Each structure stands twice: as C-alpha cells, then as structure tokens.
Amino acid sequence: MGRFDEAEQHLREALRMRRALQGPEHPDIAGLLHNLGALYWDQGQLARADSVLREALAMKRTVYDPPHVKVALTLKQLALLRETQGRTEEAGARHRAAVAMYETVRPTEHPAIARARFAYGRFLLDQGRVDAARPVLRSAHHVLSDTPANPEATIQTALNYGQCLTRLGQYQKANAVLEEGRTLAETHGRQEALQEVQTALAAVEGK
User: Which end of the chain is more exposed for a tag (fewer CB within 10 A), N or C?
Assistant: First the structure.
C-alpha cells in the first residue's frame, strides 16, 4: 500500500470513528473532510476533491458561526481547486470570499490574511490582470517579508510580486524585491525556488 492509500485509509477510518462518536456533523469531522479533500486535490483526483471539499465547507458553515477562520481555509482550498479545474470565474469569487473572511476574523497584518492575499494575487497575475494583482501581492509581500517562520511562502510571494512589477515596467523595484527572494532562497537552501527567482532576475537585467 502506497503512502497516499495509507493516508486515505487513515482519514476515512478517523471519519468513521468520529461519526460514530460525535454524530453526522461536528467540527472535527469537517476538519477531517477538508484534509481528505486536500489529499485528493494533491493527488490530482479533482472530482473527488471537489465533492469532499464542498461537503466540508457546507458542514463548517453549519458547525461554526461564520465568519470563521476554518470556513475561510476551505474557501481558499476550493479556490485553488477551481483554478486547477479551469473554472476561473468561480475561483476568483472563492479567493475574494476567503480574503474577506480572513480580514474579518484576523488582525490586519496576520500571516493568514497575507497568504490568502498571495493566493488571490497570484491568481490575478496568472489571469493577466497585472494592475489588479499589484496591490494584493504588495500587501502580501509586506506582511510575509516580516514572517520568517514560513520562508517558502515569503520566497514565492517575492517571486510573484517581482514578476508583477516587471510586467508593469517597474524594473528597479522588481529587482529589489527579487533580490530579497534570492537571499531567502539561498539562506534556506530552497534550490528550486532559487532557480525560479534567478530566472525572474535575468528578465529584469538590462532593463
């Protein structure tokens, strides 16, 4: 049995036990459903991920009193899934809903808000909406650059914000942001991310 099969079996057994002990709806059950849906998404099983994540979202809206951070988490996961499915209009709506909910339940510069903004900003950038992406990515970069506990997120935010600035012709700012990303990638030994940042820097050189 592979690692994925083991993880799926573990989550399904945990769901069975929780439902037997806690009934059909409970915060723990909603959390397990979210994790199972994320597992399916990670494995490319998009239809199964969609079904389970929507079940998790519906249950969270019942067992929590929205707005709630747990509901926002699943909204963001569904937004990422919708991107993968090519359902861009719904992906954008889910991203906006997740950001708005995080902004309601977390302090202004909380890393969870920044990560949600980063996901939304990257989505906008991928859609070619560069002007709309810039303030979203700038806000995410501002917070995450002061959050050393998650260097991977900080590097990716610097990369995407730098790429956004490059596409807007703001080469000096782009270079400074990307250099921050390169320093972090080198410091934390993130070789794949380092290559991405170096490629982005090469596009700025000589501009």
Answer: N
